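Re: weekly structure request thread

Next one in the queue (463 aa):
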Amino acid sequence: MTKWPIQKDDLARPAYRALAKKIVEAIESGDLPAGAQLPTHRALSYDLELSVQTVSRAYDELSRLGFVVGEVGRGSFVRGRKNGDAQVPWNRSSGGMDLIDCSMLVPVTGDIHTNSMAQTLGELSKDLPQGSLFSFRPRATLERHVIEAARWIAWGGVPVDPERIIPTNGNTAAMSVALQTAALPGELIVTETLGHHTLKSLTSTLGLRLQGLAIDSEGVVPEAFEAACRKNAVKALFLMPSGLGPTCAFASLGRRQTLSDIAGRHGVWIIESDAWGPINPSRPPAFAELAPDRTFYFTGVTKCLLPGLRLGWLVVPESMISAARNRHLVTNWMATPLIAEIATRWIIDGTAHDLLKWQRKNLARRNAIVKSKFGLLDFASSPHGMHVWLPLPEPWKAQDFVELARNEGVAVAASSSFRTGEQAAPEAVRVCVGTATEQELAKGLGIIARLAGSSPEPALLAI
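Done, posted below.
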């Protein structure tokens, strides 16, 4: 189906979102190539019988999302994508549809979170530590927080000296500092061939090389890692070993020990992402426990407790404490003290543990809904996970499936969003379970299961 030029009958309400969505589709289909100039606001408003303000609002949204760039005096142009640019694996513009969004990896939330935060903010208004407002000294300001963070991390299975902990504004900041500390520009990072959706873009920005390694149900295949180390000077191995990755791969203790041994023999750092922390109550020891002298480990509370609590912790090898602190100082200075204060109080008074138990309970219920709806479909999941991995039967193509599912009111993420190398991604989708209500989730999963169990119809894909 040709997606450009847009016809006025193609637009639903609200019109600005529908227009933005249609232009995104035209860009992603190639109908609007990189560098193409979009019509002027006035010309497009005339053609589509819209107000100039509506077109301007759509163009502003496209600019915010990074699809177009405006040049003063020249107009708006489709932004060219660099090879390292991240492909966002979640729904960005609904075009006026009420979507059940199963594309974004988020925890379940409810009144318990709102009430907990309201209570804590009320308490803070009465006895907020002055250092949280006025201090520029990271170590002094966050000393109390780091001690409590060490308790939380140890409770999650990783005993750690507080001196090795660097508080960060979330897992992304921790990941960035770990990469900058472990490797210099031009050096090689290896990872799962289907892995973290921003890693390719981040390593490119930092001037690092990235290579994807073959994976199986436990993650990186040891033979692939060994071969890469023999062929190249690998600087670090980036892993998501506890079900966090898109394929839900969960490494056994044996697999972790084998990869750790290979890294030790070849002098390779390990960067371990454990972003959703102790969601799974029974898991093998972390790489940070098996090989603390060579592992950069990061975790946080954003995924397991509350999305708005942007706080992470990077645990670094003892030999790299000074280097990692310097990298963090020049890129972030320090974690936001007020957010760290909230997390500290929650750890001390038990709120964090209560929210974690609530999260586990709700994720278990939602994964039970997945099993009931997906039935005999071939899919992978992780204990108490926030998503499932659904390989698509032939002749489905992942992008076609994503498009048709969106047309039917459900957003899922295509496998290509997680590709870390040049090899083609398998035809599969990631389906997240944390968003929406359980009733909406059940409805969305039913639609996904029905589509996966049927053959794609070109006529339907063109609707």
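The two ends are 9 Å apart (CA to CA). The longest strand covers residues 234-239.
Next request, please.
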